[in-house]
Amino acid sequence: MTVAAIVPAAGRGARFGGSENKIWSEIGGRPLIAWTLSALDTHPGIDSLVVVGAEEELDRLRQAAATLEKPARVVSGGATRAESVLRGLESLDAEAQTVLVHDAARPAVPPDLIDRVLAGVRRHGAAIPGTPCTDTAKLCDSQGRVEATLDRSRISLVQTPQGCLRDLLERAYRLAGAAANEATDEASLLELAGIAVHVVPGDITNTKVTLPADLAAARRVLLGEAIAEVRTGLGYDVHRLVTGRELWLGGVRIEYDQGLEGHSDADVVVHAVCDALLGAAGLGDIGLLFPPGDPAHRNRRSTEFLAEVGPMLGAAGWRVTNIDAAVLAEAPRLAPHRTAMAQAMAEALELEPERISIKATTSEGLGPVGRREGIGCWAVATLQRAGGQ
Ligand code: CTP
Ligand code: MG
User: Fold this and answer.
1) Which of 93, 108, 129, 324 could potentially form a cystine with 221 if both were Cys, beta carbons 3.0 to 4.6 Å apart?
2) Is domain 229-388 given the CATH code 3.40.50.300 in the classification?
3) Calpha distance 190→177 (Å, rounded)
4) Does residue 81's CB lie within 6 angstroms of at least one atom of ligand 1?
5) Closest C-alpha to 9, from 51, 58, 72
6) Mind listing the pLDDT tens digit for each residue in 32-68?
């Protein structure tokens, strides 16, 4: 029995959100899809892989597939999952008699689950993994009104890989025609064609990453992040406003008739953020790492400091959960620059900009900031890393 695994990866991850397809989300320093592919690549029951990707991601997927031991090809997908799987099916070599279709979005599939599906295919021709429904299950109408209570003992929540003899799936696609596009799994196509499908025990750890919270669940399974360590750091900085200097805040040049005095660009926002990050990780502070007396740092862009702090955190196993900064400035008005500041700092840290928040406030004329003698910034940062490090 020659087994080919088809991995549909051509979705958009709309429910997950974010700036790119969820399959590129990072888990322990590797993209989610790399975990999925390696689970299939290292399983002795699988002979080859076909990854079905979105047109614009094919190059990246080819690079990921090139690291695998087994023959792996990458083909372009379609508008629906069913169409993507069909493209994979059509690309198979003649000798692949059994297919396992496995969601790219399930990176933590356990090897014994794959064994059970393959055994089920050998025995029955088509098998899928399912877990029992432990909640009471209701059938509802589109307004959310309950129509009936289902017999949960007969309900199975099904996962992938879904396995079957190749010719059965090909037949099911032929019979379904365009209706195949409605199917969210292979078993429903087989059912339509009257082909018997058997359920074998699935595994709740075989998480499908659909919503952002599912990524944390997958991380817990794959990295043992059951007890993640979470730490918070605080940073503060203030510099004097003087004439004849450019004003840099949060990595952004801001038009103003004064700038902040200092050795580097005197960007108090970036300095406070650096200190919050370093403080949370217990790695000292900005003055220690980039001493103001050191001529090497003279007139440096502070975002360069930030770009050095990021990898230091990574090396110690820390991931930045979020940063929140409050800038104290009587003038200029900073609200229009908040997004650009978050972007600039996110870029330096290689972080999603949504994880950085910037607020600005005046001091109502009180104190040195209120008298426009300087600008200050408070920042907090939250970091997390896998437990046991
Ligand atoms: N998939 C695919 N081609 C499509 C749609 C989905 O190959 N046209 C893949 C996805 O990449 C994913 C798997 O099918 O690995 C399961 O689908 P789902 O979890 O729904 O992923 P997405 O469709 O990407 O997510 P969403 O529905 O939230 O957009
Ligand atoms: Mg989808």
Assistant:
1) 108
2) no
3) 13
4) yes
5) 51
6) 999 999 999 999 999 999 999 999 999 999 999 999 9
